[in-house]
Design brief:
Layout: E1 12-15, E2 19-25, E3 41-47, H1 49-60, E4 64-67, H2 75-84, E5 104-110, E6 113-119, H3 129-134, E7 140-143, H4 146-151, H5 155-161, E8 165-169, H6 174-177, H7 182-185, E9 191-193, H8 196-200, E10 211-215, E11 221-225, E12 228-232, H9 245-259, H10 263-278
Parallel strand pairs: 1-4, 1-7, 2-5, 7-8, 8-9, 9-10
Antiparallel strand pairs: 2-3, 5-6, 10-11, 11-12
The structure holds adenosine-5'-triphosphate and magnesium ion.
Adenosine-5'-triphosphate (ATP) binds next to helix 9 and helix 10.
Length: 298
């Protein structure tokens, strides 16, 4: 018989856009129009907030699944091994519809800086998402991007009807952040995770959910709830690459939150998991197993 509290067993389904990231590194400069520059490294990796948060949850030992449309071939094949090794339930993933462009991000890495070009294609959520929610197999739904929720806001009512709690990362999308009516669309979200720049674009962001967690990069993170706000620092670590830090933070935070921990512990757990992300290259490729944060005695 398991000696773990039942809440360790809460299962998380992550949903949102899944990309094949084409990551070119070692560029001498950003190419100007009409110019060609040469990369000295190339990696194909799975990307998108839903996948990265799911992979970090699984690495922490929590049961996690992904509901996403696979990028059209040949790019689904390019990330199949990575997805298969991430320890995720992929039963709610579906193939891209015929004729849809592959969903790809081209990332150009120049020293500490990076530039991205992304092709979003097809719907953000797979057709299989509704059945996965209704199945009763999942306790919590994490949505990787606000833009995806804006596309299909009815997902909240469906998840609530299934008794799930819901979290939402924001992710930068200037057009979506500037639109009216976001508070109504987000009604029913339990935890909202913008970063500082995203929060600053949203009037009254502290009140967009009962719990709003603003990620502030090296300055840590701040949680706003009915009890006020609480700030916790980041973990000091050698920064190799901050890609995926915010999504890894979400995983560490949610893992503790689903256990019913206090907000300071949840923030520390988020920062701890994010510190593992900033200490490695890329998103979640080859992540392996991660230790859970041990809460400080208070
Ligand atoms: N330079 C850094 N040094 C230490 N920790 C960092 C650094 N950057 C990010 N982190 C950690 O990662 C967490 C989330 O990072 P950040 O605030 O950059 O989120 P984000 O902008 O959503 O990230 P992403 O680029 O993945 O979307 C921070 O709260 C912090 O714990
Ligand atoms: Mg982010």
């Amino acid at each position: 018989m398991s000696t773990q509290p039942a809440s360790w067993g809460k299962r998380v389904l992550c949903t949102g856009r899944l990309y094949c990231d084409i990551v070119m590194s070692g560029l001498p400069c950003v190419p100007a129009p009409g110019q060609e520059v040469y990369a000295n490294g190339l990696v194909l990796a799975a990307g998108g907030g839903a996948y990265i948060t799911a992979a970090y949850l699984a690495a922490l030992g929590r049961a996690a699944g992904l509901a996403a449309v696979l990028p059209a071939e040949p790019f689904a094949g390019a990330i199949a091994t990575e997805l298969g090794n991430a320890g995720l339930d992929l039963g709610a993933c579906s193939l891209a519809a015929p004729g849809v462009d592959p969903q790809i991000t081209v990332a150009m890495i120049l020293g500490g800086d990076r530039a991205f070009v992304t092709r979003r294609a097809g719907p953000a959520f797979p057709d299989t998402l509704g059945a996965a929610i209704d199945s009763g197999a999942w306790d919590h739904l994490h949505i990787g991007e606000l833009a995806s929720l804006v596309e299909s806001p009815q997902v909240i009512a469906r998840a609530k009807a299934a008794g799930m709690t819901i979290s939402l990362d924001c992710s930068w999308d200037a057009e979506v952040l500037a639109r009216d009516g976001l508070a109504a669309i987000m009604q029913g979200i339990d935890v909202f995770f913008p970063n500082r720049a995203e929060a600053d674009m949203l009037a009254g962001y502290e009140h967009l959910a009962p719990l709003v967690v603003v990620k502030e990069g090296a300055a840590g993170a701040r949680a706003f709830s009915a009890k006020g706000s609480i700030h916790r620092p980041a973990y000091i670590t050698e920064v190799v690459d901050t890609v995926g830090a915010g999504d890894a933070f979400n995983a560490g935070f949610l893992d503790r939150w689903l256990f019913g921990a206090g907000l300071a512990d949840c923030l520390d757990a988020g920062a701890y998991t994010a510190s593992a992300a900033v200490a490695r290259h890329g998103g979640a490729r080859g992540l392996g197993r991660l230790a859970r944060h041990k809460p400080a005695a208070r």
